[in-house]
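writing this on my phone so excuse typos. first protein, seq and then structure
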Amino acid sequence: MLTARNLTKNYSNLPILKGVDITVGKGEIVTIVGSSGAGKSTLLHILGTLDTPSSGEIFLNDVNLADLKGDSLADFRNRHIGFIFQFHHLLPEFSALENVCIPGYIAGTKKSEVKEKALFLLETLGLQHRLDNKPNQLSGGEQQRVAVARALINNPDVVMADEPTGNLDSKNAYELHHLFLELRDKLKQTFIIVTHNEELAPMSDRQLVMKDGRII
């Protein structure tokens, strides 16, 4: 489903990625681990089109992402790639339900369909009693589940998660990883997860280790 070949990334004369190859299949949970500075987040941001490689190519369902620019790239990203970040990035002025709906509205899907899907996702994630709560009225674990629902609203091919448990206590972190497993089983959802949590990483289907800008 997703294939990247010989990805490199340089900042000035500093090489961050040094020829990374990665293939991820549909319905697979892949974790990327390694020490700080190994290039994990840089790789994830490039795979998610939030950054561009210095060289190499990425294909998502046979689409060469290098062929997409500007609005076309932004539209493709919104429709096909979901994101979960360590600090949630929920919009504080909107409710949980509204936060989840926003990417669907941007995609141009009918508002009634977006709301129906958002309600389904929030109920699936155990947040049916928190629909009208704003982020500051939610616990850290609840905020992250809202972020998961938002990432899933457009039925993305792949969800990219950058340290999704990094801001959670051990109980909520464990529950979130189990949630990823359930979403893989129920929805055949694909995840690529960057994590420092070496206890939780083995729960994935496959674990990749990065060191000095390479997968070893």
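second protein below, same order as before
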Amino acid sequence: MTMDATLSGHLQELRRGTVVVASLITLRTPGYGYSLLETLSQAGFEVEANTLYPLLRRLEAQGLLTSEWNTDEARPRKFYRTTEQGDALAGTLRDEWSRIDTAIGDLSVKSGSEE
């Protein structure tokens, strides 16, 4: 396994959970999948459509998102919105992310390799 493949795998693992948090936060304002992809991309989250759509369905099945079809336009679109439970989870995950970030920063300072 090359270093590039190793790095790629670790970056993918690191990003996986952050896309969940970013999606739950973004969908506090209702949106559909394609607009969420664009918003996440503009914010620096690299996510493919074939990763995002199953994630949205899984979050909905977990009660963290709700959805409804908008048929007012020529092409029906499924809009998603974060539920109260999803909003609470997003807050908890953000707090945990901050705690982990602080802990990693503390380790970096202690080892003398702050980045």
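The chain has one domain: 3-111. thats all i got for now
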